[in-house]
Amino acid sequence: MRISRKRFFGVLATMWGLTRWQSASLGATASAAEDSHPDPYEVLQEARKLARAGKFEEALQKHVWYHENALKYGAGQYGVRLSFALSDWAALGKQYPKALQTLTEIRAKDVATLRAGRGDAHLYHDVVGIDRYLTGPPQGVELFKWLDANDPKRAAECSIMAEDVLADAGEYRLCGKYLGDPLLRLDIMKQGREMERKLQERPLPNGRTAPRTADSRFINTAVRIITILVRSDRKAEAERFRDEALKIVDAPTIREAVEKAAEPAKAS
User: Fold this and answer.
1) Which label site among 40, 186, 190, 256 has the fewest CB atoms less than 10 Å from its CB?
2) Whole domain around residue 228: which residue ranges?
């Protein structure tokens, strides 16, 4: 079962459109409707200040609140919530072990929710995000395998969030199962790149310049998809995808991706 184009692009738009630099600037762009609610950005800053002051339990409670509520009051916190905020939380855990225990328990709850047939792709993304900041076996790959075997519809919805961790684990055929039409995916990637480039042209507070990450994100995704196709015995599709991707971004890593993806197979 494959995710629909509408649903797929909606998930991808969230991942690409709400980038870290945009999220970090929300404190200066919050809407009037959000003014009556706690400001997630300020709560995260408070957590950092409390940690520096040695008030570890209070800092932990701020992190828990931020993780559970940030997206209710500011959707643009998506990127920060799974990157800088979790990094701060993990740093707190080095001084206050209860913080890591709490984060581990949150991940376990998320896994249980998905196994129970509830939750969505964003909850799966939470699991994968937390994996990056905890030691021990990551849960994202095994959870997706379980969803693939027991809840294919939900697996299809989560597949875009799972693709990079599955590829890193060498699960190329499982990735390929949910990839669908590579050229349709390329069209979505092209739209995502254009959207991200427009967002990055917006002025930031204090005269800062937004990092130009749209092309690098496109290149990395294109190379990953080419690798998935080659390792799934779909080389002809990989070559067609490469040729079309080069028309959008002419990068050596894309041009060489088919050959590089085939190298381990030749050596084995």
Assistant:
1) 256
2) 181-268
Q: Are 146 and 235 in a shared domain?
A: no
Asked whether the CA dihedral 189, 246, 2, 5 is positive or negative, the reply is positive
Residue environment code for 205-233, b if the CB has 16+ CB neighbours within 10 A, otherwise e: eeeeebeebbeebbbebbbbbbbbbbbbe
pLDDT along the chain (268 residues), means of 10: 50 44 40 63 96 98 97 85 96 98 98 96 96 94 98 95 95 96 95 87 65 89 98 97 98 97 64
Q: What is the pTM of this model?
A: 0.81
Considering 179, 198, 214, which residue would you say is the last residue of a domain?
179
Domain boundary, last residue among 163, 179, 195:
179
For residues 255 and 122, state if they share a domain: no
